[in-house]
Amino acid sequence: MATINFGGVLEDVVTREEFPMEKAREVLKNETIAIIGYGVQGPGQALNLKDNGFNVIVGQRKNSKTWDKAVADGWVPGQTLFEIEEAAQKGTILQFLLSDAGQIALWPTLKQYLTPGKALYFSHGFGITYKEQTGIIPPADVDVILVAPKGSGTSLRRLFLAGQGLNSSFAVFQDATGRARERVIALGIGVGSGYLFETDFKKEVYSDLTGERGTLMGAIQGIFAAQYETLRKNGHSPSEAFNETVEELTQSLMPLVAENGMDWMYANCSTTAQRGALDWWKKFKEATQPVFEELYASVAAGKEAERSIASNSQADYREKLNEELKELRESEMWQAGSAVRKLRPNN
Ligand SMILES: NC(=O)c1ccc[n+]([C@@H]2O[C@H](COP(=O)([O-])OP(=O)(O)OC[C@H]3O[C@@H](n4cnc5c(N)ncnc54)[C@H](O)[C@@H]3O)[C@@H](O)[C@H]2O)c1
Ligand SMILES: CC(C)(O)[C@@H](O)C(=O)O
Ligand SMILES: [Mg+2]
Ligand SMILES: [Mg+2]
């Protein structure tokens, strides 16, 4: 473990330098890693592990779109692609990468294949933390571990192909074999993590649900919509409103934040912009802080889990989600965005 100073707080992290890929391959050389579920994380993790030289198989329902996707990605039926039950039986490490609601439905089947010494792997603390709601209670004689990439499975794969990596958290919930820790770190390196930081299942799910409902996805759309509407109500064109709300942020300013922090981005804007941003950010913080407190309380009370399970367990959950995504896509702001993207010189 390398001890790193994160803003004055010392934390131990695992880097690829101290836990190289050869070591990960050595730790997992006798394992068959079965990827159960081929949605977003499934493909990213499965393909990265395979390309890094691990023994990987995929478990999917035959005659499903995801089975066809797995075939298109190079998984071979009968060799590296199997029905879920067969993959679960063959695997020594079962990576449970169905949707969090889907995991509840499959659990009674999957647990039959968790024979002593196997490892049950999650990419979210959801199933274990909210066990009263999910019913996921693993047997005592298997390792229960977690690697949660901090980003989309799509980005995990893209960054791997670009020779980079996405940071992940890792956790051990249950160490039945005495090997849980080395197994989970090796898997974290194998799936293409940049570095790994330690957490526990509860902290992972509380922070993850807060982040995606907050600044990463929910809050950002909310604040975009509020500013766009204000500009439009005051007579600004869609083009002007979209550029001042989204396009400049994603194309010009966020890359500077990613490169060297917020003060660096501010420093590369005018003194006029700096004065205004420095005055206004605290007002936005004060206005939104109560919403974040409400959000965290809802996560901690299990209400977000309840809502997610209830809506994503419906037979027509995918159609309903698609309708809501369509509504976003067809809103004036994102239609303006589509036109703006087409005008980018590289398009
Ligand atoms: N999406 C991400 O990039 C991401 C990032 C970090 C962690 N995670 C976690 O990884 C795990 C997998 O997430 P994902 O986004 O790849 O999953 P997903 O929602 O894309 O679903 C994965 C698979 O589950 C199947 N599925 C969905 N609902 C089902 C149901 N009700 N019954 C049976 N099957 C169902 C889908 O057909 C798909 O093949 C989850 O625990 C998630 O929280 C996801
Ligand atoms: C990619 C995210 C938002 O980080 C993940 O947490 C998810 O649930 O998809
Ligand atoms: Mg999440
Ligand atoms: Mg996340």
Give a verbal description of the structure.
The chain is an alpha/beta fold. It has two domains: 2-199, Rossmann fold, CATH 3.40.50; 214-342, no CATH class. It is built from 17 helices and ten strands. The chain has helices spanning 21-27, 41-51, 65-72, 84-90, 100-110, 126-129, 131-134, 153-161, 180-190, 201-213, 218-233, 238-260, 262-267, 271-300, 303-312, 317-329, 332-342; strands spanning 2-6, 9-15, 33-36, 56-59, 81-82, 93-96, 119-122, 143-149, 166-174, 193-198. The protein has a ten-stranded mixed beta sheet, sandwiched between helices. β4 (56-59), α3 (65-72) and β5 (81-82) form a beta-alpha-beta unit. α1 (21-27) packs across α9. The mean pLDDT is 97. (2R)-2,3-dihydroxy-3-methylbutanoic acid binds at residues 151-152, 208, 212, 216.
Number of strand segments:
10
Give me the CATH fold name of the largest domain: Rossmann fold
Amount of beta strand: 5-15%
- CATH domain class name of the largest domain: Alpha Beta
SSE pattern: EEHEHEHEHEHEHHEHEHEHHHHHHHH
Could you give a short description of this structure?
The protein has two domains: 2-199, NAD(P)-binding Rossmann-like Domain (Rossmann fold), CATH 3.40.50.720; 214-342, no CATH class. The protein has 17 helices and ten strands.
Topology:
Blueprint: E1 2-6, E2 9-15, H1 21-27, E3 33-36, H2 41-51, E4 56-59, H3 65-72, E5 81-82, H4 84-90, E6 93-96, H5 100-110, E7 119-122, H6 126-129, H7 131-134, E8 143-149, H8 153-161, E9 166-174, H9 180-190, E10 193-198, H10 201-213, H11 218-233, H12 238-260, H13 262-267, H14 271-300, H15 303-312, H16 317-329, H17 332-342
Parallel strand pairs: 3-4, 3-6, 4-5, 6-7, 7-8, 9-10
Antiparallel strand pairs: 1-2, 2-10, 8-9
Helix pairs in contact: 1-9, 2-8, 10-14, 11-12, 12-17
